[in-house]
Amino acid sequence: MKTTTKIYAALLTVLCPLSVPAQENMLKAISDFKAKHLIFHTVEQNGENEGKKWYANMAEFVMPKKKEKLLLPLITAYDRDLPEAYASMKTIAKSAVDYYKNSYDDTRIIAYDDNNMQMLNLGGKAGYSYLMLCVRDKQDSLMRHAITIEWYREGRKIKGAIYDIYGRDPRKKKN
Q1: Which helix (DSSP H) or strand (DSSP E) does residue 13 occupy?
Q2: Burial class, 167, CB count within 10 angstroms (exposed 0-12 / middle 13-18 / buried 19+)
Q3: H-helix or E-strand containing 33?
Q4: Is the model more confident about 122 or about 128?
Q5: When comparing pLDDT for 10 and 51, which is higher?
Q6: What is the rounded distance in angstroms from the CA atom of residue 129 to the CA atom of residue 58?
């Protein structure tokens, strides 16, 4: 019994450094998605808040409805990274009129910029699908990484946006 415990402890010691950091699956899936040349417009912002750097990157995409399966790796990556998140949201609309609740319970706000004054609103739109993960930075407990993806069907196309935001966690107090 003690030998088995020691073997498991040794395996954990070896395998723990190989574990995937938080949101790593989502970042890789987004990188692969962007490599498919589906992005048509990007906006990048960055700055500094009391010596701490922040950024907010947005990439819009359009693709034919028949290529909707390209979103599946993003959904799978989201599910893999979900245990690391302190806040999350997942809503997959089945049709253009599906998910028409438009209530505050179904929305999320992600604040960013130097003083967390700019905001990204997610949720409550008819026919939209959303994935959102917020993960605290393990190196700096005051900072967080938010990754969100929203998309909807419009005729024969799927349109959406990917947001990658890093900055001060509004839920954490400054020292």
Answers
A1: helix 2-15
A2: buried
A3: helix 24-35
A4: 128
A5: 51
A6: 17
Owner of token pair 């750097």: 53
d(C-alpha 122, C-alpha 131), whole Å: 9
Tens-place pLDDT, residues 140-174 = 888 888 999 999 999 999 999 999 888 888 777 66
Is the Cβ–Cβ distance between 55 and 70 less than 8 Å?
A: no
Cα separation values, 84 from 37, 49, 135, 144, Å: 29, 25, 6, 12
Q: How many CB atoms lie within 10 A of CB 42?
A: 13
Q: What is the pLDDT of residues 99-122, one digit of tens each?
A: 444 444 567 777 777 677 777 777
User: Among all chains, which residue has been given the structure tokens 């998309």?
Assistant: 151
**Contact status, residue 145 vs residue 166, Cβ threshold 8 Å:** yes
